[in-house]
From TrEMBL:
PANTHER family the record matches: PEPTIDYL-PROLYL CIS-TRANS ISOMERASE HP_0175-RELATED (PTHR47245:SF2), PEPTIDYLPROLYL ISOMERASE (PTHR47245)
Biased composition range(s): Polar residues: 170-181
Listed Gene3D superfamilies: 3.10.50.40
EC number: 5.2.1.8
Catalytic reaction annotation: [protein]-peptidylproline (omega=180) = [protein]-peptidylproline (omega=0)
Domain spans labelled PpiC: 137-227
Positions of region (Disordered): 168-188
Keywords of this entry: Isomerase, Rotamase, Signal
Enzyme's top EC category: isomerase
Protein name: Parvulin-like PPIase
Gene Ontology MF annotations: peptidyl-prolyl cis-trans isomerase activity
Similarity comment text for this entry: Belongs to the PpiC/parvulin rotamase family.
Length: 279
């Protein structure tokens, strides 16, 4: 089983490496190891790092290089052995490789479609739309007290009406992570908070607190709006990559919807699958 997994893993790495070579050019991708006449290149190491857990992907390449190198060497050795044993001709291997091939082709197709469809003019247009929206919006600096029941929140609102200090009350009563700094949430803009929280904060006058509890998926909130300011508008260069990624996602989704609309698709529900397995 280990050898079979290694063969599939190596195939994934090789496919990712192929895509990297197309973009980078082999001449900029030095050989970093040779295993039984098979070359291991720097892009292999970099692509292997991209397969690490997200918390480790940000580590400097120098720090993870030795571990990744040994892993790639082990995978290459295991793959060679698996091929000698004929595992690359088994139905299990061929089925998994077909699935991997589908995924790679999908990524290449979407990448080519986006590359041909997305223009600088599209990104600039989206940026201008964002700027126009930002002119009518503001950022809010707020505090909150988070509790697990509406009655508790109502009792806290009454204490605030009686003159209690919001920051002190948040430090004593809040069950959220901002408890340690008096419930201070800092600044946030449109779309950064739960919808009901944001709508309530927008309606609260500066310096005031919510007179009715606000419910979100996290619990019940009492909110105080400390300040308001105009939205900070990033420069085009600062926003370009984010907007390009946003537009790329939209183009990819629209393209797949078009393919589905043009295709003949038959699918079974989960219940039908369970029934078929029971028969």
């Amino acid at each position: 089983m280990f050898l079979k997994r290694s063969v599939v893993l190596l195939a994934v790495l090789a496919a990712l490496l192929f895509l990297g070579h197309v973009a980078q050019g082999v001449e900029t991708d030095p050989v970093v190891a040779t295993v039984n006449n098979h070359e291991v290149r720097l892009s292999d190491v970099e692509n292997a790092r991209n397969l690490l857990p997200s918390k480790m992907q940000g580590a400097p390449l120098r720090d993870v290089y030795p571990v990744l190198m040994e892993s790639l060497i082990n995978s290459r050795l295991a793959a060679d052995k698996a091929v000698k044993l004929g595992f690359n001709e088994t139905p299990e291997y061929l089925h998994r490789m077909a699935r991997i091939s589908d995924q790679i082709l999908e990524r290449i197709l979407l990448a080519r479609h986006i590359e041909q469809s997305l223009t600088d003019a599209d990104i600039k247009k989206r940026y201008n739309q964002v700027v126009e929206r930002a002119k009518t919006q503001s950022e809010i600096h707020a505090r909150h007290i988070l509790v697990d029941s509406e009655d508790h929140a109502k009792a806290l609102i009454q204490r605030l009406k009686d003159g209690a200090d919001f920051s002190k009350l948040a430090s004593e009563q809040s069950q959220g992570p901002s408890k340690s700094n008096g419930g201070d949430l800092g600044w946030f803009g449109p779309g950064e908070m739960a919808q009901s929280f944001e709508e309530a904060a927008v309606a609260i006058p500066t310096g005031a607190f919510s007179e009715v509890p606000v419910q979100t998926q996290f619990g019940w909130h009492v909110i105080k709006v400390e300040e308001r300011r105009a939205m900070t508008i990033p420069s085009y260069q600062e926003a370009r990559e984010i907007l390009a990624n946003e537009l790329s996602g939209e183009l990819g989704q629209k393209f797949m919807e078009q393919l589905r609309a043009e295709a003949s698709i038959e699918k079974k529900s989960f219940e039908e699958v369970v029934k078929a397995l029971q028969n």
